[in-house]
Specification:
Elements: E1 3-5, E2 12-14, H1 28-72, H2 81-97, H3 104-124, H4 128-155
Antiparallel strand pairs: 1-2
Helix pairs in contact: 1-2, 1-4, 2-3, 3-4
């Protein structure tokens, strides 16, 4: 129980009171309405920040993919077909990560493609050091997207 100021007359009144004893202004419904509005605003803000952080992760992933292609595509290193599959899966993760609508299915699919890219990268052992580093990064992105999916699910 908290003491609040009546929005009408400014006198102190309990937040549990149905109306202000001084002016009769309804209190309880307004407090409940304000709390619901605050909770809805917080929920929208959390969804917004999750959406923006996922977009940033997709951009970082694209940068890592381009960097990996630059390293693995050098003339002295040959890219095998498994590395190509890993890159394709990661690129699909980036594309789906930027897809519209931005909903739970796209988040889950993005995580799945990143995780698959990482698993294929670990299993292929092409340019071992570079491939394993890229694979671990992709698995990390996949895990972050899975966590984002579960957090989105909590806010639904």
């Amino acid at each position: 129980m908290a003491i609040i100021n009546c929005p009408e007359c400014g006198k102190q009144v309990s937040d549990q009171a149905s109306s202000c004893p001084s002016c009769g202004n309804p209190i309880k419904n307004k407090v409940i309405e304000q709390n619901l509005q605050a909770m809805a605003a917080e929920k929208d803000y959390r969804k917004y920040t999750l959406r923006k952080s996922r977009k940033v992760l997709c951009i970082l992933s694209a940068i890592f993919i381009v960097g990996y292609l630059g390293i693995a595509g050098s003339p002295d290193l040959a890219i095998n077909r498994w590395e190509i599959i890993m890159v394709i899966l990661a690129v699909l993760g980036v594309i789906i990560g930027f897809a519209k609508p931005d909903n739970m299915v796209t988040v889950l699919l993005t995580g799945v493609f990143y995780a698959l890219a990482g698993i294929v990268g670990i299993l292929c052992h092409g340019n071992v050091k570079e491939t394993n580093a890229m694979a671990i990064i992709m698995i990390g992105f996949g895990i972050v997207f899975f966590i984002s999916y579960w957090r989105m699910k909590a806010y639904e």
